[in-house]
Amino acid sequence: METSTPPPNYNRLQALKAFDESKAGVKGLVDRAITQIPRIFVRPADELTGDHPISDEVPIPVIDLGGGASLGRSSVVEEVRGAAESVGLFQVVNHGIPAGVVDGMLAAALGFHEMEEDEKRKLYVRGSDKRVRFGSNFDLYESRFANWRDTLFFLMGPDPLDPLELPQICRDATLEYSKQVKRLGTTIFELLSEALGLQPDYLLEMDCAKGHAILSHYYPACPEPELTMGTSRHSDPDFLTILLQDSIGGLQILHQNKWVNVPPVPGALVVNIGDLLQLMSNDKFKSVEHRVLANHEGPRLSVACFFNLHNYASTRMYGPIKDLLSEDNPPIYKEITFKEFADHYNSKGLDGKSSLTKFKL
Fold first, then answer.
1. pLDDT per residue over 159-203, tens digit each?
2. Region 326-352: what's the mean pLDDT?
3. What contacts 24+ positions apart, CB below 8 Å, involve 68-71?
4. Which residues pair with 306 in a beta bridge?
5. What percent of the chain shows pLDDT beyond 70?
6. pLDDT (tens digit, 9 = 90+) per residue, 190-247?
7. Which top-rank group of organisms is this from (predicted)?
8. CB neighbours of 185 closer than 8 A, spacing ≥ 6?
9. Structure letter (DSSP) for residue 53
């Protein structure tokens, strides 16, 4: 696909600063009824021409967590193991979070992102020091092109967040969803521990569920979706992600050098393995690379729960689990702190390259 050459006087840094200093995000551009996306959002020509093909041939596993009594827990563990090893992502149904809580979280996220600009600007910040913040493109100045997405970020733990720091429009819904998704995360970590042949509480004892952040993503309708991305190719900088997505779709995973659609399933939540769990499992589990397409249809909403130790002063070292190692399965990675990993991830942004490469032995 051909794209026009920028004029000689085009100043990308100046354009990035103008977008950033507007504090209005991508929604601010859409509200101004633009018909062409600004050049800072356009994917480079080599990315467009070198992209992987799209395939619907790989079914995304859907695991019924409510079938434990009839199917037996061991069957559920086997399904989780198969999905974590082969795909790195699966969807869960009968997960225990009431439909009203799920719907309320999506409605609350929509309510915030469609507030008046002046209200959202109060929370707009670049950087990672604030526990509650609104922004667009955390890696705006590091990325090759900006993503068509705004984000509301809440750091919910390990240290409790003062509820009054949450915007009133989404406070109650977020607090309830956070409580419910943390409980679900605990259940999934137990299943993953067993899938590794370990005691159910092993990953919990490693603080994998100790902290979590809630990110509400808003993808407005895009006038030229073929030229940009909702979210660039990446894997997640955490132990585990639980994603709530609406019915629009657009999420894709990279599997065997093809992009595979992750279709929305009514009532389901998406679970994907994070980089640190791939490291701890010594590559037994896969931290799947994924992306989100921009779309003429919108807004698309998703709410991601990242289980990690963001900004938490932990000295715990993470490396391949020793009980999984043997002469035939030596360690692939060195031991690191969560902060070491997070600092590297944030410094490079969503550049399409695995953050794990830096920490290989």
1. 999 999 999 999 999 999 999 999 999 999 999 999 999 999 999
2. 83
3. none
4. 213, 241
5. 95
6. 999 999 999 999 999 999 999 999 999 999 999 999 999 999 999 998 999 999 999 9
7. Eukaryota
8. 209, 212, 240, 242, 305, 307
9. P
pLDDT band at 67 (very low <50, low <70, confident <90, very high): low
Residues 173 and 83: their CA atoms lie apart, in Å, by: 30
Residue 56 has pLDDT above 90, yes or no: no
Question: CA torsion angle for 259, 221, 175, 269 (degrees, to 10)?
Answer: -30
In 3-state terms the chain splits into helix, strand, coil percentages (rounded to 5) of: 35, 20, 45
Dihedral sign (CA 221, 226, 229, 234)? positive
Number of CB atoms found within 10 A of residue 354's CB: 15
DSSP 312-342: -----EE-S-GGG--SSS---B--EEHHHHH
- Kindly give, in sequence order, each residue whose CB lies less than 8 Å from that of residue 122, ignoring residues fewer than 6 positions away: none
Q: What percent of the chain has a predicted confidence (pLDDT) above 90? A: 76
* Residue with the two structure tokens 């729960």: 305
Q: How far apart are CA 89 and CA 287, in angstroms?
A: 8
Domains of the chain with bracketed CATH: 15-359 (2.60.120.330)
pTM for the structure as a whole: 0.93
Whether residue 155 contacts residue 51, with contact meaning beta carbons closer than 8 Å, is answered with no
User: How big is the chain, counted in residues?
Assistant: 361
The structure tokens listed for 347 are 């410094």
Backbone angles phi, psi at 306, to 5 degrees: -95, 120
Please list, in sequence order, all residues whose beta carbon lies within 8 angstroms of the beta carbon of residue 323, skipping any fewer than 6 positions away. 197, 198
Pick the closest to residue 292 from 267, 269, 264 (CA basis): 264
Cα-Cα-Cα-Cα torsion 284, 349, 181, 66, nearest 10 degrees, comes to -40
Question: Where do the H-state alpha helices sit in the chain?
Answer: 12-22, 25-31, 45-49, 68-71, 73-86, 99-113, 117-121, 171-195, 202-205, 275-280, 338-348
